[in-house]
Amino acid sequence: MVMKDNEDITGEDGIGGEIGRLRHAHFGGSTLDKCDIRVLNTKAALVDALWLRRDEGGNLMERFGVIYIVAQTSVGWRITSAITIAA
Fold it and tell me: How far apart are CA 87 and CA 76, in angstroms?
């Protein structure tokens, strides 16, 4: 998914739709299971994260990975790209 504007981010095909689908599935929360950080230089890093998504009863719904590219800005570290991968 490429999110080029606010509608792509918050709309039905973006995070907004994902939040709706999770609520419908009785999503309870996500926890970070693993996180590896590789510093690329003083301004960039690659973060490899494994997330666990659970329902309201604590049952595992899904495991998924995300690779984040982060950059140091004048206001701190910010995610510039997030790529979801199979876990």
Answer: 29
Q: How many domains does the chain have?
A: 1
Confidence (pTM) = 0.78
49 lies in a domain?
A: yes
The one-letter amino acid code at 15 reads I
Percent of the chain with pLDDT over 70: 94
CATH number (domain holding residue 45)? 3.10.450.50
Phi, psi torsion values for 21, nearest 5 degrees: -65, -40
Helices (H) and strands (E) in the chain, counts: 2, 4
Query: Is the separation of the CB atoms in 42 and 72 below 8 Å?
Result: yes
Q: How far is CA 2 from the centre of its chain?
A: 14
Residue 69 domain-assigned?
yes
- Dig out the tokens for 59 from the structure: 């049952």
Tokens standing for residue 36: 């590896």
